[in-house]
Each structure stands twice: as structure tokens, then as C-alpha cells.
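Q: Convert this sequence to C-alpha cells.
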Amino acid sequence: MGEHITFKSNGHTTPGYLARPARPGPGVIVIQEWWGLVPHIERTADRFAMEGFVALAPDLYHGQSAKGPDQAGKLMMALRIDEAARDLAAAIDHLAAERDVTGQKVGTVGFCMGGALSLFAASRNPEVGACVIFYGGHPNVKPDLATLQAPVLGLYAGNDTFVTPDVVKDLGRQLTALGKRHDFHTYPLAQHAFFNDERPEVYDAAAAADAWAKTIAFFRRELQA
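A:
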């Protein structure tokens, strides 16, 4: 369903994976985990296309991907946030200009590192009309929540040692204090990365299915699909 593309960014080109639905629909940026633009993320973009969304997953590692957690951690920490910000802004612009994209706004959704970058991108780009965070965290990503215009759907794991319940509560308090519309859901028994069906040691089918249903309903409502 999807295809590998490149788009202009940072004075060069950035690779990505673009999946189109059978007919025009809203656009969604799908942001990778710390592993990179791996088949799981491409399949997730395909799933969005099957639900009627035009989905673009930018490759923030520019061709690199990790086979194990040590390499993934090194790639994540080596990521320059300023460059990632420009890549994401360019991806948003490219997606918004796609012929099959409808509506005035696009959505962002990300997983783990990508979840943090989903909120970061939504805070920096007014073209984002809906933001979804799957257990998002990155020590170097500091979104300016005061500039956030999009509503946020947060999907978290109760048994998460990386994005802990206290981290989630603190983010919720900040968004509430700023009057930002948000809806958080925590799956008490789920672990970090519960949505990734390529990791059987943490994958939670029930939590993943519920989180997916919530994500699709949220994007359809906020992006007027």
C-alpha cells in the first residue's frame, strides 16, 4: 500500500514512507520509535491508510535503524533535536500539500521517542490539528507547551519504568494549568511499548487494540474525517 519517498528538508532530502488510502482523507504524520523507520512503523502507516488517512512516516535517522536496544539508545541520543524539528516541519508541509489530503490540519502520532516528538512537533507547528502520544519520552525533547494549539490524546502504560506514571501525571498537570485540551488513558498492567507487536515480551493485544480504536476515533473527530 505504501511507498518509500523523499521530501525536501534542511536544505537536503529526507526519506520517508507514504501510505495512501483508497480515496482522499486527512493527513497523519507517524513518528518512529527509537529503533528507526522499521517495518513495524511502515505497517502502522499502512493501517492508518486502511482507515482512510494519508500517512507519512519520516525517517529521522536517515537510513539507519537499530537491531538491539543498545544501538537504539545510541541512535536516539545522537539525534539532533533541531534537525529532527526541521525534518518534522518539512514532513508536515509535504503531507499537507499531498493531493489526496483533505482538511486544513494534519495529525501527529508517535511511539516512545516518537511520542515525545509528536507533542514537540504539535507545539511548534500550527498546522497540526490533533496530537497522539503513545508512551512518549525523550530526555532531550522539551516541547513548549504554551504554544500548543492541538488537542492531545495520551496513551500510557501503568507498568512503565521509562515514562512512569509520575511523568504522565506531571505532563497532565502542566497541560491543565495551561488550559490545553487533553485526554489521557493509562493501561494499568501494560508495559512500555505495549503497541509494538514485534516485541512479544511487552506487546499487549488488548491494550493495543483499545489504544488504536481511541486513536482512530480521535483523529476522525479532530481532523473531521
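The domain at 2-222 is CATH 3.40.50.1820 (Rossmann fold).
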